[in-house]
Amino acid sequence: MTTSSDGSTPPPGQPSLRTLPKAELHLHIEGTLEPELAFQLAERNGVVLPFADVDDLRARYDFSDLQSFLDLYYSCMTVLRSAQDFTDLAVAYFARAAADGVQHVEMFFDPQVHAANGVDAATVIAGLRAGFAVAEERWGISGGLIVCIVRDQPVASADALLDEIAPLAHDLIGIGLDSAEVGYPPLLFEDVFARAAGLGLRRVAHAGEEAPADYVWQALRLLEVERVDHGIRSIDDEDLLAHLATHRVPLTVCPLSNLRLRAVADLSMHPLRALVDAGVVVTVNSDDPSYFGGYIAANYEAVAEMGFDHRELAALAENSITASFADAARKAELVAAVREWVAAL
Ligand code: ADE
Ligand code: ZN
């Protein structure tokens, strides 16, 4: 390959994938915590991290599966304590996202984990919303927040979270479901998601990342999600593929995450091409970019390495916009920007 893994060196005569306008629909803000900022915040808040230094922490970014990542990820999250911490984290992410051509972000966050560190949901939401205000003013980035249910915590804890956020629902765009997947099927959260819908929240869920296609069916039928996060195991079920394609249910796929968490052995084995060929609306996203070796342009670059040309990559970027929860006018503006990029090829 002549291209670099961060999307910064395009093939001769081709624009960098960083200039392709795109939306990021699968991004855990806590997964953008870089080791340097983690140590700065630890010092600011008097938290002792169980790592010697930045290099020691980075050396642990060698994961065998989702759980091995989550253990480190939740440990690093203990440094986030104040609204200002969340604003600083979000602005650092938005600066990188803007440099990668991101124009719209739908951002996940995990209040149940922050609650265990003594931070309430209102503080997290206020801090992240202040980050969005900076992003809009500085870089013209639109978007909003998706509150995630941590599925390996008790269902009663998810219910309590809904009680807590109900008065703040107007500050959120949706509800999601994340954390350890196998053994925590979507069906456990049917009532929680029905309640969230009653609060006016759009519904998405992680499903089919490590667990089988049946989890995707449950997310669709029981949680009534509008998008599926990851969803790569849908490739094992032809009826599910046909359903996703017919009903145009988007998947938010995260290639570098799948590689680093060993959901796929290598990128040549990734089902993304087969999903596209089956007619599924696929989007490309970064998941937890600090931990997985690259932000969103690097994920587009990984897809280029799977054999997608610039026109096909632009079609995936257009999917990210049409699959977003942006309003019709914003979608039209961003789709036009993608088409301009294609016209200049
Ligand atoms: N939380 C952060 N990243 C996640 C992932 N890839 N899967 C499930 N939960 C997560
Ligand atoms: Zn995720």
If you had to describe this structure to a student in words, what would you say it looks like?
- The chain has an eight-stranded parallel sheet with strand order 1-2-3-4-5-6-7-8.
- The chain is built from 16 helices and eight strands.
- It has helices at residues 35-45, 54-59, 66-76, 83-99, 111-116, 121-139, 155-165, 190-198, 213-221, 238-246, 255-260, 272-277, 289-292, 296-305, 310-322, 328-343; strands at 22-28, 102-109, 142-150, 174-178, 202-207, 227-230, 251-253, 282-284.
- The chain has a single domain (17-343), classed as Alpha-Beta Barrel (TIM Barrel).
- With 345 residues, it is an alpha/beta fold.
- The longest helix is centred in the middle third of the chain and has 19 residues, at 121-139.
- It binds adenine (ADE) and zinc ion (ZN).
- Adenine (ADE) binds at residues 28, 31, 66, 178-179, 206, 209, 257, 287-288.
Keywords:
binds zinc ion; alpha/beta; globular; binds adenine; TIM Barrel; 13% strand; disordered N terminus; 8-stranded parallel sheet
